[in-house]
Write a structure and sequence with these properties.
Two copies of one chain form a homodimer. Chain A is of the alpha+beta class. The first copy, chain A, is built from five helices and ten strands; from the N terminus they run E-H-E-E-H-E-E-E-H-E-E-E-H-H-E.
């Protein structure tokens, strides 16, 4: 008997070559390390299928994956399975927050209804001492209301070719962006600002969130207007878009299913 | 001419032997590294005097210190001084958020009117993947309202001998605790809770915040009542108090002056 499990996973992607397993296990990837840990506790070779790949350096508070396990030598509760995988992952910065039995037709990627990413920018003069690797550090003060206004022109169903990586393998560049919210809060006692950009869609193209963020920073710097963003979107050309924001600031926050 | 500067400092204390400079510069300390950076840009031997020492592994979002600089070979604006020190600190996880001219009678320690610490507890099964070194990981679910209630019996002017380290060098164990608030928020999509304990006083004894937090976790686990906390306080005996919480969860958030 095979039982499918849904895993909720947190990871610090700083030192990994992204989600996707590589040949020979080098460089290390999140998927590869979890599959090794599953093997170590169960003896089984499995594929841990996530809701989608994340790039090198990208983090997750709530990546979702599924894995099929054959009968174990002794019956285990789902929480014991999470604990057993974690025992083999530790001290790597990857952990299983929960394991839950799932029906055979549950698919972490194809059943996903909504994904939410958070992108964090630290906007201040001094480099980040505490959150290095978890924020994009931008010294020049950004105009957050202008970024928020420009973000709204990107909402809806569009051809997002301008914001997809040239190596993106998706057949269809059409996506529906449901949310792109830019907000600011005080970060520290030195006057720093943290800007958070929350992006939601059923699915995203390769580098799409990072390319959207990079473009919004041009607006924040006063170089681009909201009209320039519309024009870039309509150009359907990656060269018309802004730069790709660094991986470090990006977190896959959650994936929702019906 | 000597000019005093007030520095606001952020640091990740994980890999340092605390604030206070050590003989020969080993192991590395926050104070020692900042003094080296000041020397590197100015050529001057200085003492960087903080609002108070922090222990090994303790972090700061807003430590305050003062330093006296003789005339520089070229006049520099305060923001340039912060930038010059940072250039020599980088890539260490210590940065000067701001440098401001201060009167000669400003003293980072003796002029301080209020200090605020934050202690962070990650309360969930899975170990921390993203915030390792920045939280105390406790698996057993804690009763936050009970902790908050017990915390309130500690407020006010008391002999805090029960909560001071046996090596504390303060002559007087009397302190006035102005705030000790325990609050919880959702941490992740796996059902985790982050508990934050905010502590404010004009000054604290050695290990006082960590000993207060360790004692409150006994309440959170249901082992102690608020009355037990009162009894411990009244015992004026370190042996009557709870354990010392790990350094990793502690942040000096801010120091206020008149």
């Amino acid at each position: 008997m095979t039982q499918r499990y849904r895993l909720t996973i947190e990871y610090n992607g700083s030192d990994y070559a992204g989600w996707q397993r590589q040949e020979n296990g080098r460089p290390q990837t999140i998927q590869g390390e979890i599959e090794k840990a599953v093997k170590a506790f169960s003896g089984q070779d499995t594929t841990v299928q996530s809701s989608g790949r994340t790039d090198a350096g990208v983090h997750a508070y709530g990546q979702i994956a599924h894995v099929d396990l054959e009968d174990l030598t002794r019956p285990m509760q789902p929480f014991e399975i999470a604990k057993a995988i974690n025992a083999h992952l530790y001290p790597q910065p990857i952990c299983i927050l929960s394991a839950e039995p799932a029906p055979d037709d549950f698919h972490a990627r194809f059943s996903a209804k909504n994904k939410r990413y958070i992108y964090r920018i630290l906007n201040r003069q001094a480099f980040p001492a505490i959150e290095r690797g978890f924020v994009w550090h931008i010294r020049r003060p950004l105009d957050v209301p202008a970024m928020q206004e420009a973000a709204q022109v990107l909402l809806g169903h569009h051809d997002f070719t301008t914001f997809r990586d040239s190596e993106c393998q998706a057949q269809n560049p059409m996506r529906t962006l449901d949310r792109l919210d830019v907000s600011a809060r005080e970060y520290d006692t030195g006057g720093g600002i943290e800007i958070r950009i929350a992006a939601e869609a059923k699915s995203f193209l390769h580098h799409m969130v990072r390319n959207l963020v990079g473009t919004l920073t041009l607006v924040g710097e006063g170089k681009w207007s909201a009209a320039d963003v519309t024009e870039a979107l309509e150009a359907k050309d990656r060269c018309a878009g802004g730069p790709t924001a660094p991986a470090a600031g990006l977190f896959l926050e959650r994936v929702d299913y019906e």
